Amino acid sequence: MLYRRLLSLAAFAIALTGLGAAEAKPAKKKPTTVASTTHVTKGSHKGAQSIGAPNAGHLEGAMLLRGSHTLKQKEGSHSWGLPELVHALQRASIKVAKKHRNSVMLVGDLSGRTGGFLERHGSHQTGRDADVGLYVMNSKGKPVNVRHFVAFDATGKGRELPWAMFDEARNWDLVEALLTDDKASVRYLFISNPLRAKLLAQAAKKHATREMIARAAAAMMSPPEADVHDDHIHVRIACPESMRGVCIEEAMQRVGSGDGGAVKAARGADVDGAEEKTSEGKPMAEPPPSDASNEAK
Ligand SMILES: [Zn+2]
């Protein structure tokens, strides 16, 4: 037990030393000095662990998200995550499909099997992040299922697909399903500002409770560069209670000019989105500004 703790602390320290995200590799298992008498190397048998911060950490004992009749994965996606995240996605896909027959949620990357740096992402390192494609309608307002993420402009029209429209009803039901999942505490939903506004309007139209709307307004936010999250919602769950001490809630502040040691466990900007100045449960009129965001989609 002690060894396991020490190992975790070591990993935590590694995360804190500020290996840039670009080189943050999953921590290698410790060699034999500690392994022989303990189970420290068998994360999958001891439960999953999200170690470090979303943009500087790794993952142990991850669960693989599998497709179902309500959930498909984008080709080539990395589908490992904390069980809390995997189950929340599965449940949300079922909830949406119950309200809208034959709906299939399209999921992109979660994390690699042992977490760490994932191509094209700033975060997605610790099994708490997932990209979920937006539900799409055709030009007649009929829900359609797609196999690729579809980007929408501020009016809700497909940027590259003229026939595609942002499906307000299903996307709001998705947001609501995620936020009301009491087994997984969804902390952030990164989405572009215009789509966020559409979703909040849809919530009002559907007479969602004031609390629900406030919760959604607080959770949904956009990175500073417009259009970054215009074809998917980036879902991040909070650190599960059981991982307290090893799981770092907020992304590490990025310090420019290679000053790796100065990485702080800050509410700093994560390339996936603006994370500072947010506090759960507080509705925000405007998403906060952020000083860094360069996550590709
Ligand atoms: Zn993402």
Question: Short summary of the structure?
Answer:
The chain is of the alpha+beta class and 297 residues long. Helix content is 25%, strand content 15%.
Helical percentage: 25-40%
Mind telling me the CATH class of one domain?
Answer: Alpha Beta
Our count of helices gives 7
Radius of gyration: 19 Å
Helix/strand order, N-terminal first: HHHEEEEEHEEEEEHEHHEE
- Identify every distinct bound molecule in the structure, by name, code or SMILES: zinc ion
Report the count of strand segments.
Answer: 13
- What number is the mean pLDDT? 78
* CATH-defined architecture of one domain: 2-Layer Sandwich
Class per helix and strand makeup: alpha+beta
Identify the strand order in the major beta sheet: 7-13-11-12
Low-confidence stretches: 1-45, 257-297
Strand content: 5-15%
Tell me, what's the shape?
A: globular
Classify the fold: give the CATH topology of one domain: Muramoyl-pentapeptide Carboxypeptidase, domain 2
3D architecture notes:
The chain has 297 residues and is an alpha+beta fold. It has a domain at 64-242: Muramoyl-pentapeptide Carboxypeptidase, domain 2 (2-Layer Sandwich). The protein has helices at 2-16, 32-35, 43-46, 83-99, 168-179, 193-205, 210-219; strands at residues 49-53, 56-60, 63-64, 71-73, 80-81, 105-107, 129-133, 136-137, 143-144, 165-166, 186-190, 220-221, 232-237. Strands 7-13-11-12 form a four-stranded mixed β-sheet. Strands 9-8-10 form a three-stranded antiparallel β-sheet. Strand 1 and strand 2 form a beta hairpin. The longest helix has 17 residues, at 83-99. The relative contact order is 0.15. The model is unreliable at 1-45 and 257-297 (pLDDT under 50). The structure holds zinc ion. Residues 121, 124, 129, 131, 234, 272, 295 line the site of zinc ion. Zinc ion binds at residues 121, 124, 129, 131, 234, 272, 295.
